[in-house]
Amino acid sequence: MKAMMLTGIRQMEMLEVPEPAITGPKDVKIRMSVVGVCGSDIHYYTAGRIGTQKVVYPFPVGHEGAGVVVETGPAVTRVKPGDRIAIDPAISCHECDQCRAGRHHTCRKLTFLGCPGQAEGCLTEYIVMPEENCFLLQDGLTADHGSISEPLSIGLYSVKKSVALNDRLTTGILGFGPIGMSVMLALKAGKVRSIHVTDKIDERLAIASCENAVSFLNPLNVDIVSRILEMQPLGLDVVFECCGQQEALDQAVRLLKPGGKLMVVGIPEFDDWSLNVENTRRKEISIQFVRRQVGCVQASLDLMSSRQIRIDKMITHRFPFRETKTAFDLVASYADGVMKALVDF
What we know:
Elements: E1 2-8, E2 11-16, E3 27-36, H1 39-47, E4 49-50, E5 53-54, E6 64-72, E7 84-87, E8 90-91, H2 97-100, E9 111-112, E10 126-130, E11 134-136, H3 143-160, E12 170-174, H4 178-189, E13 194-198, H5 202-210, E14 215-217, H6 224-231, E15 236-241, H7 246-255, E16 256-264, H8 277-282, E17 286-289, H9 297-305, E18 315-320, H10 324-332, E19 340-344
Parallel strand pairs: 12-13, 12-15, 13-14, 15-16, 16-17, 18-19
Antiparallel strand pairs: 1-2, 3-6, 3-10, 3-19, 4-5, 6-7, 7-11, 8-9
């Protein structure tokens, strides 16, 4: 089969590799339909690493996938050949202390699609996954919905981990890429009305405007802290840092009201965050880091199925499988107002 492999920094080739086979009774073999290009894929593409996780070339990334079941193991009951499915890329052991505590996303033996040292990604024609990682796409949901369910579930989980939602909550999203937009869609589904959005790409801010953000500001053009505090002089209840930038973390701390909550969702390219002691201590700010998601894939599919969440403005670019490198170059350079690029098989 064909696989799109990282072969060096900003290098990618389509190579022939062995087709995977079912080996366990609950395995599901999937023919890939769509894969979304994620920011973490781009980290591996441009830097060859995220923290201590370093790429050994050649290696296929990709984890935001949907496909069609082509074969199942004898014990599989949830899906059958021909079913269209979304794929949860995180495979947990269900035996460690974290899994027993319901924290499958921090499993001690977690393997994650497209993560070096764990599992090869789904930018390949076929993959094999456990049955429990396969989620049926009901009528009305496309492969696009299945692919988007992965980042959307992170946004949904981030919102669930923040504070109790109500229509008086004041919120900020710093960094309006696919994860920031997923957070916004989850907030809106929770009836939150006051959402302030910042990003350095004006085309993304235009999407935030269409999604009825209270403000949509570019920090390259305006002092976003002063402008938001003019509108919310008491500060914000919760701020989601979704771009992995130190300046955004600093802005979040300044924007929060005393007792506010900082949600750190973005993945930085550097190794250490810094925090202003006086502002965080005197305000008694709560800080919550977010690690992917747990148990939110089906919920994200249900919200899309019920039309409480619509993703039509998130997908901005599409590329055929053979042009995956072009998709990665586009996303890596933030060109053409890209929000989410999809690779079609």
